[in-house]
């Protein structure tokens, strides 16, 4: 049995958090490959080490004195080392970092030191081998992740290593320079390592007990989703639910390895299992609700639109030419509506409108701003009659006017457009009808 365990920044923010992580790892022999993030926030106004590194490096780039900032970063690690009573001295490591900052080794190099140094501390604490991610995670010259080369070298390197710590977030370019994934990228490293060792499970330890059915800032104490499929997760994360980096899904998904989201601060909670497929029905018909505010609906009308071949293409051409991506496009017989992000659209609004008039010659265009989109996602909706009916009854009951409905033919989700000001009420109404009324 092999498990790859990734710990997020808040799980490794202090010596106390490290101790929790240590007990988690020691509690299960299968937890053999550990991917640490950089130390995160210890309290809400604290700064993540990664952000401290970016700032410190920016000062170095401007030619300013950055020694104090680097000292502050060092003391974050020293606090952990002291708190764990480790026999470890990072002096020479910090000398190298300082030199590299002076030589302007790059922003990615700078940011990656957060994980690199934390990996050294973690390996020392656990007594595991430390493997520098720059030696086993590779990017191509154009900056894309090199999955093939990485898989080959990483799986060979780990074949005879029983226990290892591999820092998350970075790897190296063909010329040896360090490159990072985008923010939150340690999740991706964990997934790549899980695939390379052919793990039975990829555990991703964070500070929440899994994915929640709805955003806790909107719904009070929402329930945890016990099992979610990759497709459902994709729908929910696209709509703003974030726990896991989106790109972390691909490597393990290809290899059929499930991900388990767990809480370092509540290790007995079972968290959320993310799986390719499952016959287990979601508990509440729906799996989750997520949404985003700040959309504009561009309603376009033209008599006999439905028989005019190429009308839709001309309209979309205008959006493409102006570099605006659209989110949804419900259509009627003589109308089509395009949902776009308000902040992207606002500055190009007049150019888009005149472009549509010129190319597609509609009868009428109407704009409606300050709209929100809500996705109700669930594999269980396909086999349950009346889901849509229940959603709309709940919304009507809460006096919410529904502006748009879009149900994909996969029946995996229903997207609803409402006014921004109705957003929170709508999510609560849907949550109540599916979850609270089932308890
Ligand atoms: N430390 C990096 C960040 O703050 C990567 C990670 O935590 O996954 O984005």
Walk me through the structure.
The structure is a single chain. The chain has 439 residues and is an alpha/beta fold. It has two domains: 3-207, Acetylglutamate kinase-like (Carbamate kinase, 3-Layer(aba) Sandwich); 288-438, VC0802-like (2-Layer Sandwich), CATH 3.30.2130. It is 37% helix and 20% strand. It is built from 14 helices and 16 strands. The chain has helices at residues 15-26, 49-61, 67-83, 91-102, 107-126, 147-158, 186-196, 230-238, 249-255, 311-321, 342-346, 349-360, 387-397, 423-434, and strands at 3-7, 31-36, 129-130, 164-165, 170-172, 178-180, 201-206, 227-229, 259-263, 272-275, 288-301, 326-328, 335-341, 364-377, 404-407, 413-419. The strands form three sheets. The protein has an eight-stranded mixed beta sheet with strand order 3-4-2-1-7-9-10-8, with helices on both faces. Strands 12-13-11-14-16-15 form a six-stranded antiparallel beta sheet. A hairpin with a 5-residue loop joins strand 5 (170-172) and strand 6. Helix 7 runs parallel beside helix 9 (249-255) and helix 13 packs across helix 14 (423-434). The longest helix is centred in the N-terminal third of the chain and has 20 residues, at 107-126. The protein is globular and about 75 Å long. It starts with a strand and ends in a 5-residue tail after the last helix. The mean pLDDT is 94. The protein binds aspartic acid (ASP). Aspartic acid binds at residues 9, 37-38, 48, 50, 114, 168-169, 183-187.
